[in-house]
Amino acid sequence: MGKRKRQQPVIIIDIDHTTTGHGSRNELEESENVKNFQLVSPSMSGTSPVRRRKRTRKVGCNSAIPVQKRKLDSGAFEYCFQNLWRSSPEEKKIHFTYLDCLWFSLYLKASHRRKVLKWIKDKQIFSKKYVFVPIVCWSHWSLLIFCHFDERPESKTRKPCMLLLDSLQEANPRRFEPEIRKFVLDIFKEDGKCKNLNVICKIPLMVPKVPQQKNGDECGKFVLYFIHLFMEAAPAKFRIKDYPYFMKENWFTADGVCQFYKKFGRSDEVVCL
User: Fold this and answer.
1) Fewer CB within 10 Å, N side or C side of the chain?
2) Is residue 19 part of a domain?
3) Distance of alpha carbon 148 from alpha carbon 168, whole angstroms
4) CATH classification at residue 139
5) Domain count, the chain
6) DSSP 99
7) Residues near 66 by beta carbon (within 8 Å), at least 6 away in sequence
8) How far apart are CA 260 and CA 225, in angstroms?
9) pLDDT digits (tens, 9 = 90+) for 122-176
10) Cα–Cα distances in Å, from 175 out to 24, 228, 254?
11) Which long-range contacts (CB under 8 A, 24 or more apart) does 59-66 make?
């Protein structure tokens, strides 16, 4: 038998059930560099992806489902997000836009970086007050929000800033800060929005202490709920001195997440345990 090739570290993403309308998604599916992985709990995965045996967890009295069934892949995330987006009032949506949930992960791969930056440029994010950037990387979902990128970075009245909402603080959300800052810098450079790159590097990145998940399977649903509630409560002018506004540890309850996903999520998925 030939020698087995040593596996290289990979960014854990799942494009098995993606149904987004972006034409770029077909390109991703055809790329040999983008592989289909099942999301696993960050508390179990360590620093590299591992395969786990299927286990079952009882639901109610007599039923049982595979644990893997409960994990939120990018297809389920996109399904729920699009339901949420369609149901949001137009007067709210006019101030928001969003990036595909796979784009940040793909940006981290040099072979996809140029394409991702082009797709983002086409989104015209600098015309919106708020931009949602879902992040799924190393088995965990979190939410990056660009605030007031429609303003000049040098602005004295309404400064651009970034929020990173993470339902698993113990995973150290700021571990992504170097990649996030490079990502933002490249976005500005691609668009030609600002010539003073030193100013862009100083855009504040804030990590509020938001409600925390109870297990390793809930992070994607928390991100969707973060988006929903942020759209409802985001101020017309996000001022750093008033931070964190409504984004606090008691912002919402676990039951709120459950009821939200029952309304917008896929009916074939288990929501509450």
Assistant:
1) N
2) no
3) 26
4) 3.40.395.10
5) 1
6) -
7) 54, 55, 56
8) 7
9) 999 999 999 999 999 888 999 999 999 998 877 777 789 999 999 999 989 999 9
10) 28, 25, 25
11) 59/270, 59/273, 65/270
